Amino acid sequence: MTAKRTLFLTTILLAFALGGCAPAAPAPEPTRIPHAGLAEARSRAKRLPLAPLPEAAALKPAPVTFFFPRFSSYEEPALKFAKPEETRQDGGRVTLSGQPYALETEHFRVHFTFSGRDAVPDADENGNDIPDFVEQVGSTLEFVWDVEINIFGWPAPPPDGGRGGDNRLDVYLSDIINRYGALGYVTNEGHDALVGDNPATEAVEQRAMSAFLVLDNDYQDDLLRPEDRARWLELLRSTASHEFLHVIQFGIDGGENDNWFFESVATWMEDEVYNDINDLVRYVGAAFKAPDSCQLARGGVTKEEDRLNWYARWLFFRFISERHGHATVRDIWLTAGHDQTNGYKAFAGPLATAETEILQVFREYSLALLLRDFEEGEDYPTVRLEGEAAADATFRPVDGVFQMGADYIEILADGRITVELKGAALDSALLEGLLVGVTRSQVQVFEMPDGRGSLDASTYEHVYLVVMNLGQAQHQRDCKEAGYTASVAGGGQAQEPIDLRARAFFEPPVVEGLKK
């Protein structure tokens, strides 16, 4: 028997950070041009093949399709809305506060009511007897379906056996912000939803599940700030793109047990579908302010800085998609589902197709955090500085580094120096260091073989030691901390850098109370 599982977008603790905009004037196309620090700058409509899955996944060949690094068009699909019809209450799902009605679109059945606490706004400017808010929900969902399935190539979710009225995906509009503190959620309905094999793919799944989606009935709740209520449309759009991917995820592998994988990829999808909204930038704090936390950890248990860590780690997948394409992230999830491969093993095949591997991706990502080397990096915070290491002294951090986490230490020294990294995990090759020298025009990166690296510090405006824990926890309960020390001594033969790169959006990281 499979337990019922529900995934929430967020709680009201984050609602202050989200929003939308009142009725649907088309949003302008973004003008930001990818900066020179990116590995590559792709055309917005460049025709590229989707990255194939590993052979073991036995998928149908991926078709050639338009590849969009971001999809920002706000042109809604031309929809023919069926008049809302009365429908019975489905007690096994969501019981609305009044007589339920259902609006039918091509792929969705949107359930709503006109009375009680779940009532939708009754404005109907076009006089078609369908509330404008409900029409906007249907239009938004069809747009999200088109982008995530037809453009980005994710498989359609399996049918639910007619529950909710027919085999279309059921969406319930309910007062969930006030009731649960949630902007939206998806549940797989437990063992009743076990489909096993998703007919939308040629792979034979074992744990595909149907699901239904719940959105707030108006996004006008008093728990939201007035400016957030005024921006309800963007709030609806970002929530719908996030939650619909959860439905897709359940339809691939409802038994996936890595919650960080569910939430970080669904959060990443928000910006893939609606690049202009950027609500998810508000989630990113833990990625920069607690970069030494375990990627799998929920966060907020032992320190405030990594609260909402599951959501913040969307940036790791954003990094992968910026360097290696949207399809690589998609294929990682498909591999996890079709092979029932949990943890980081699912990354191997898709990253090999992209001619890289997980540890190299993490090294590059750790450097990107320091440099804010992302397409929208100017909008991100600076990474947390663990501290400063002075010449002829030994640096001891406040705490260690968890698996797939990194610390950043500024080296305060002049002339030729040698930095030595020591740690209990170093002998098992879990800890690894990089030295980074930043000039006014570029960044130079130095390896630290056997935990030692040398450079001429006087050449640079800033020098940093990046301490990475390359260990990989398989489950949140396996997250462990690795301690270390770093010593800085004068002298040594300056090494040649292994990499030169642009400064990107670099700003010197600081620790509150340590530097201004």
- Measured between the Cα atoms of the first and last residue, the distance is 56 Å
Can you tell me the residue ranges where pLDDT is under 50 for at least 5 consecutive residues?
10-69
Q: Give the neighbour order of strands across the main sheet.
A: 1-8-11-7-6-5-4
The coarse overall form would be: elongated
What is the arithmetic mean of pLDDT? Answer: 82
Structural classification: alpha+beta
> Got a strand count?
23
Please report which band the strand proportion falls in: under 5%, 5-15%, 15-25%, 25-35%, 35-45% or over 45%. Answer: 15-25%
How many helices does DSSP assign?
A: 12
Largest sheet: 7 strands, mixed
Helix content class: 10-25%
Using only C-alpha atoms, the radius of gyration works out to: 24 Å
Question: Which terms summarize this structure?
Answer:
seven-stranded mixed β-sheet, 516 residues, elongated, six-stranded mixed β-sheet, alpha+beta
Any chance you could write out the topology, listing elements then pairs?
Layout: E1 6-8, H1 12-15, E2 47-49, E3 64-66, E4 85-86, E5 100-104, E6 108-113, H2 132-151, E7 169-174, H3 176-180, E8 184-187, E9 194-196, E10 208-209, E11 212-216, H4 226-230, H5 232-253, H6 259-273, H7 285-289, H8 309-312, H9 314-324, H10 326-338, H11 348-353, H12 358-371, E12 387-390, E13 393-395, E14 401-402, E15 405-412, E16 416-423, E17 431-438, E18 443-447, E19 452-456, E20 462-469, E21 481-482, E22 484-490, E23 499-501
Parallel strand pairs: 6-7, 7-11, 12-15
Antiparallel strand pairs: 1-8, 2-3, 4-5, 5-6, 8-11, 9-10, 13-22, 14-21, 15-20, 16-19, 16-22, 17-18, 17-20, 18-23
Helix pairs in contact: 2-5, 5-6, 6-9, 9-10
